């Protein structure tokens, strides 16, 4: 009887470790060379470029390799995760040092020149011009510069609201509740 209990405990702990390791692997899987932070922010509704409130994200560009490149960068709303908003609701404004783009809609580009090192930093201001409440937007920032005859481009992903993905919360909560219930059941049997 004790061997069966011990096997159940080991199985439950093993499953928990595997789930947590898988979640960490999913969170760390970003091989791209453009990173946008913070990952989630709340955007105000119905803003306009002349009076709008915006949220600022940091952009880290790395693996530039050779400095002094002219880059083309743009933001693009790729998905409505939840809510009734539209892909055209977001506008983007890029800042590099003292240079600043105007407000850009989806896929409108801005050109900037890196500082000559392997890494550089920019910011992007994101504004919600839509009016649909509780809409979660996924947008990406693309940065590219010519290498030979092609382009090296990469992107980072972030969300336009502070609502985390369901699986990000549900999996750890389910694992913890499962362990609590398992150990309570075990205690009651003893």
The pLDDT mean sits at: 74
How many strands, which pairing sense, and closed or not: the largest β-sheet?
A: 5 strands, antiparallel
Under the CATH scheme, which class of the largest domain?
Mainly Beta
CATH architecture of the largest domain: Sandwich
Count of discrete domains:
2
- Structure annotation, total helices: 2
Low-confidence stretches: 24-32, 148-159
Structure notes:
The protein is an alpha+beta fold and 190 residues long. The protein has 2 domains: 2-27 and 168-189; 33-159, Sandwich (Immunoglobulin-like), CATH 2.60.40. It contains 2 helices and 9 strands. The chain has helices at 2-28, 166-189, and strands at residues 34-37, 55-61, 70-82, 90-96, 99-100, 110-113, 120-128, 136-147, 150-159. The protein has a 5-stranded antiparallel β-sheet, with no helix packed on it. Strands 6-3-8-9 form a 4-stranded antiparallel β-sheet, with no helix packed on it. A hairpin with a 2-residue loop joins β8 (136-147) and β9 (150-159). α1 runs antiparallel to α2. The radius of gyration is 22 Å and the shape is elongated. The protein starts with a helix and ends with a helix. 23% of the residues are buried.
Which secondary structure elements does this structure contain, and how are they paired or packed?
Layout: H1 2-28, E1 34-37, E2 55-61, E3 70-82, E4 90-96, E5 99-100, E6 110-113, E7 120-128, E8 136-147, E9 150-159, H2 166-189
Antiparallel strand pairs: 1-2, 2-7, 3-6, 3-8, 4-5, 4-7, 8-9
Helix pairs in contact: 1-2
Briefly say what this structure is.
Helix content is 27%, strand content 36%.
């Amino acid at each position: 009887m004790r061997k069966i209990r011990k096997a159940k405990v080991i199985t439950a702990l093993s499953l928990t470790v595997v789930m947590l390791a898988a979640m960490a692997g999913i969170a760390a899987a970003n091989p791209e060379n453009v990173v946008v932070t913070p990952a989630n922010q709340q955007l105000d509704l119905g803003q306009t470029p002349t009076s709008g409130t915006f949220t600022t994200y940091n952009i880290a560009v790395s693996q530039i390799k050779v400095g002094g490149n002219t880059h083309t960068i743009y933001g693009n709303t790729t998905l409505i995760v939840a809510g009734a908003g539209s892909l055209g609701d977001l506008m983007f404004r890029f800042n590099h040092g003292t240079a600043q783009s105007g407000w850009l809609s989806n896929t409108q580009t801005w050109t900037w020149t890196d500082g000559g090192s392997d890494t550089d930093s920019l910011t992007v201001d994101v504004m919600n011009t839509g009016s649909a409440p509780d809409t979660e937007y996924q947008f990406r920032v693309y940065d590219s510069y010519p290498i030979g005859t092609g382009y090296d481009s990469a992107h980072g992903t972030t969300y336009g609201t502070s609502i985390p993905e369901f699986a990000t919360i549900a999996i750890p909560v389910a694992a913890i509740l499962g362990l609590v219930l398992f150990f309570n059941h075990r205690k009651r049997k003893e």
